[in-house]
Amino acid sequence: MFLNRKSHHLLTVLATAGIALAMALVFLPSVSGTAEGSAYRSSGNQGDVSRLQSKVWYLAEGYTAGDFDTWVLVQNPGDEDVDVTMEFQLPEGASAEPYAFTLPANTRESVLLDDLPGLAATEVSTTVTSTSDIYVQRSMYFDYREARGGTGTFGSVCPDFDWYFAEGYTGGLFDTFILVQNPGGSAAQVTMDFHLPAGVSAEPHTLEVPPFSRRTVKLNDLPGLGSTDVSTRVTATEPVVAERAMYWGEMTPLGQACHGTIGMTDTHNTFYFPDGQTSDGRETYTLVQNPNSGPVEVQISCLSTEGKIEVTFTEVIPGGSRRTYPLADMIEENRASTIVECKTPGKRVGTTAAPAPAPSAASRTDPSKRAKGARPHCVIKRANGARHHWRVFRRWCLVALLHFGCIACKMGAWDDHIEPSSQMLYTT
Questions:
Q1: C-alpha distances in angstroms, 399 versus 20, 212, 236?
Q2: What pLDDT score does 39 carry?
Q3: Which residues pair with 384 in a beta bridge?
Q4: Angstrom distance (rounded) from CA 194 to CA 165
Q5: How many Cα atoms occupy the beta-carbon half-sphere of 13 within 13 Å?
Q6: For residue 206, what are the CA distances in angstroms to 161, 169, 304?
Q7: H or E segment at 272?
Q8: Which of 5, 177, 313, 371 has its CA 20 to 30 A from that of 393?
Q9: Going by C-beta distance under 8 Å and a sequence separation of 6 or more, which residues neighbour residue 215?
Q10: pLDDT at residue 406 is higher than 70
């Protein structure tokens, strides 16, 4: 199926028993092998869209300069027209007028921020408000030095005082950015604490984000973060919205690639990742952040496509650190789903997830770079992607059954049956 920029396709998954979640991956047209997930896990402000229907949405990331395009995508699933207003938070000293429009019932609108007055070449965060419940996402695309790629994420429905990002890497040709949006009327004092591989530390970074503005922090430029795996915790004195963006591979034969995600605001004790692949040039990593002072025991299990638990192991992760688990170290070349559980009594973990192209510039498969850490309130991040070139849109829906019974799964116009402890892959 070919989808153009304005097309809209819904794939609905209905389950009659316990299903972890469904994930949709969109492989963008690219000569750099860029792949970015369009759905993120349920924790904090992320996850199942049906729980996120809201009249107010926040998007921290956005960039319109050079060869970057930023789209804000608004869906009205209701039976009545809604009035939508977009307000923009820019770097200090810059401003742009709000953009308003009416969105008819049961329709979707794509707004290219680059085309709006005052937004032609700038960093930009967006606040979207409406007269009735809507859904909002943001997509960014770039065409840089003959390399095409993009990222996408749901918006946040509520600013918060705490945000967690398990993923981050600043070595080689990797750049990691933390983007902070302050949609409120008071200045926010923001502190970023960093969790590095065990035995390594970096000083916190503080900054002020003025009212109705946005700040971009490049972690590579901060002391102690010049070449390292890094997880980040963002705390603020006023509610803010935070996202993370990563770019890598510039000036390499495959070109630049990227991924990005909104942060987590909450923690849990179990997380599920329906997809993971180590074949066909793909690399998959599960990233665990421990932002607390004491150690936690984490159990990781992999479910195969053959309906069995491929591997299960536990590990104690020091407090205030981060650890990375390559899927290739756990299974042979194949696809697998992953479960991550915090086994320390009274402690919970959290998760964010997004697919990512395999690193081609600074290898993350070097065992010396895999000693990362976790903690009582942990954050887990999955990176997954391909080195190969993709020139058409493809949409994947991956469903993992993580209970002991079977479920009935209805997708579009056909029915299917998913065996216990297994992974099923559907393409459309």
A1: 8, 40, 36
A2: 26
A3: 284
A4: 10
A5: 24
A6: 14, 20, 44
A7: strand 270-273
A8: 177
A9: 91, 179, 180, 182, 190, 207, 209
A10: no
Question: How does DSSP assign 290-309, residue by residue?
Answer: E-SSS-EEEEEEEEETTSSE
Bridge pairing between strands 68-76 and 107-112: antiparallel
pLDDT classification of 375: cutoffs 50, 70, 90? very low
Confidence of residue 378 (pLDDT cuts 50, 70, 90): very low
Distance (Å, rounded) from C-alpha 144 to C-alpha 137?
A: 23
Please give the radius of gyration of the chain, using alpha carbons only, rounded to the nearest integer. 20
* φ, ψ at 8 (rounded to 5°): -140, 125
Coil, strand, or helix at residue 51?
helix
CA distance linking residue 396 with residue 384, whole number of Å: 13
At residue 44 the predicted structure's pLDDT band, cuts being 50, 70 and 90, is very low
Write down the pLDDT at residue 250: 78
Supply the mean pLDDT for the chain.
74
CB atoms within 10 A of CB 44: 24
**Which pLDDT value is given to residue 308?**
79
The per-residue b/e assignment along 347-372, b for 16 or more CB within 10 angstroms, e otherwise, is: bbbbbbbbbbbbbbbbebeeeebbbb
Instruction: Specify the amino acid at residue 376.
Output: P
For residue 127, what are its two tokens? 């606040």
Distance CA 54, CA 228 (A): 38
Residues 6+ apart with CB under 8 A from 321: 195, 196, 197, 198, 290, 372, 373, 374, 375
Task: Check: CB of residue 284 under 8 Å from CB of residue 327.
Answer: yes
For residues 218-226, give the mean pLDDT: 96
**CB atoms inside a 10 Å sphere around CB 217:** 18
In this structure, the dihedral spanned by the alpha carbons of residues 140, 182, 242 and 155, taken in order and rounded to 10 degrees, is -50
**Mean pLDDT, range 303-321, rounded to an integer:** 87
pLDDT tens figures, 16-41: 222 122 222 222 222 222 222 222 22
pLDDT band at residue 105 using 50, 70 and 90 as cut-offs: very high
Strands 35-37 and 348-353: unpaired
Pairing of strands 348-353, 377-386: parallel
DSSP 344: S
Cβ contact 150:257 at 8 Å: no
CB atoms closer than 10 angstroms to residue 47: 18
